[in-house]
Amino acid sequence: MGTTYRNGAALVLPSTVGTAAEGIGPQRLIELIAAAGKDPTRWEAVAAALSAQLGGAAVLLALRLPSPGDCGWLVTAEIAPEFRRAYAEGYFASDPWLRRMADRQPGVGFGYEILPRSALIHEEFYREWMQPQGFPQTPTIMGLCRTEAGRPRSTLAIFRTPATPVFQIEDVQLIRRLLPYLQRAMGRQ
Fold this sequence. Notes:
It is a single chain. By secondary structure, this protein is an alpha+beta fold. It has a single domain (about 1-185), classed as Beta-Lactamase (2-Layer Sandwich). It has helices spanning about 25-40, 45-55, 80-90, 95-100, 110-115, 115-120, 125-130, 170-185, and strands at about 1-5, 10-15, 60-65, 75, 105-110, 140-150, 150-160. A 7-stranded antiparallel β-sheet has the order 2-1-4-3-7-6-5, sandwiched between helices. Strand 1 (about 1-5) and strand 2 (about 10-15) form a beta hairpin. Helix 1 packs antiparallel against helix 2 and helix 1 (about 25-40) packs parallel to helix 8. The protein is globular.
């Protein structure tokens, strides 16, 4: 079960994906994403399936990024409720990847391609939001899904947990393959 933050309110929705999500493959992920584009309550299933597909990774989907006074619309898997809330209520402003994605086109890559590890370890976001959750510094997978008026609108962040295998190029390629489907589904929200 995860939590969705939409318009500042926490909505706890039961996940429709259980342990069978592990290893479900790209086609099933595409189907889940398409279903979420039609039914917003299905985004929890997408986050859970992505997490399972990537070995239990922590997933943060920002369907609408937070901004001052607006907690946005966040969907997560494997991120503790207090850290979901902390991100929505303020840590988004210190997210170093967001700052660096502001001038980029939508795409997906390893986090260190956007923000070098040597810079990450000096960031408040790493010390106060990632490190307490046990998220290793690298690699992460970061994606800018949609922009609006030249600013990031929707993003995807995937963090390793202590139990998650190290991400491989195939993992990034999978998310790149899913990006057009995520963009289309997120655009319907």
